[in-house]
Amino acid sequence: MQEANECQDSLFLMRWSCGPSKFPWSFTATETMYLLEGKVIVQVDGHEGSFTIGAGDLAVFPKGMKVTWDVLEAVNKHYSLEK
């Protein structure tokens, strides 16, 4: 069992929010996110189709992935970046 201070550098949680909008995004690090609220349609550059993530969903985006975010409902998420 690790002590709390040993775990300190293992995980950094951040919070991000955004109102309805559409914008391109490039992931500069692998990102794991948990949507607390909202709804987003994600289009991965160079691929047909899209997928939707919403409140209660967990998603992982690899470093280097380029997407377009179409935020349909205001988003509030927790996320962490791989070191």
UniProtKB/TrEMBL annotation:
Lineage top rank: taxon: Eukaryota
Domain (S)-ureidoglycine aminohydrolase cupin span(s) in chain numbering: 16-79
The family database entries (SUPFAM superfamilies) matched by this protein are listed as: RmlC-like cupins
Q: Which residues form the signal peptide?
A: none
**InterPro entries xref list:** RmlC-like_jellyroll, RmlC_Cupin_sf, UGlyAH_Cupin_dom
Q: Which PANTHER family match?
A: OS04G0445200 PROTEIN, RMLC-LIKE JELLY ROLL PROTEIN-RELATED
Name the chain's protein: RmlC-like cupins superfamily protein
Highest classification ranks of the organism: Eukaryota, Viridiplantae, Streptophyta, Embryophyta, Tracheophyta
